[in-house]
Amino acid sequence: MIIASAFAPEDYVDRMFEQMVREAPRYLWPLLDWFEQNYIGQQNRFGSGRIPPFPPKVWSTYQRTLQGRDRMNNFAEAPHRRLRSELGVDHPTIWRLIDGLRTVQAGRDQHFESFVRGDEPPRKTQRYLLADERIRRTVGCFDADSNFSAQFHVKLTFENKEPKCNLSILSGYVNNQVGQPTLSGRRHDIALIPALKS
User: Which domain of life is it from (predicted)?
Assistant: First the structure.
């Protein structure tokens, strides 16, 4: 559910996190403590909130998703991956690094020239366009008055083709929250599998 909180409005991230804490098994508490310290913020002893290093306004993708913009910022990772593949080693010599930088820069120059010429940029495949549209519809249907943490997480994670919520998955998730035993003894994983098959 931590991932689903990135798609919630910033004003509801605290409520969603509180619900996560109430529903989470004990073995996940250290992870939730870390997430709260770094991404939500904690109250200090004076009652005011301690600002986290990465507040929700930095990582929330709610508005960007509704506007159809990129949800992730991999623009810095792509050149790094390209340079690593060009160099072919983890610790290059300075001369190999310079040659690799020149090669990568030449490729970037060609890419830029194609945009200047007016060539169309590469399009997203249909698979990714459909996935983006499903996520946008799900985020657009965010309902803060319901048990939104569980439902929102399940809709973002398991809903594959339907724009509406798959009730059998939600009922499996809710039944699991009541405490019905699962094969692994944990509450969040195995009970969803029968619901997915139906």
Answer: Eukaryota
For residues 136 and 169, the model is more confident at 136
Instruction: Count the alpha carbons within 13 Å of 114 in the hemisphere toward its beta carbon.
Output: 10
Task: Write the DSSP symbol of residue 188.
Answer: S
Q: b or e along 68-103 (b: 16 or more beta carbons within 10 Å of the residue's beta carbon)?
A: eeebeeeeeeeeeeeeeebbeeeebeeeeeeebeee
Tell me the residue type at 143: D
Report domain extents, the chain. 77-117
Of 173 and 146, the one with more pLDDT:
146
The three state secondary structure string of 32-49 is HHHHHHHHHCCECCCCCE
Q: If you ran DSSP here, which 8-state letter would residue 52 be given?
A: P
Token code pair at residue 9:
């409005």
Short-list 151, 134, 140, CA closest to 62:
140
- The answer to whether residue 71 scores a pLDDT higher than 50 is yes
Mean pLDDT of the chain: 75
Return the SS3 of 197: helix
* pTM reported for the whole predicted model: 0.57
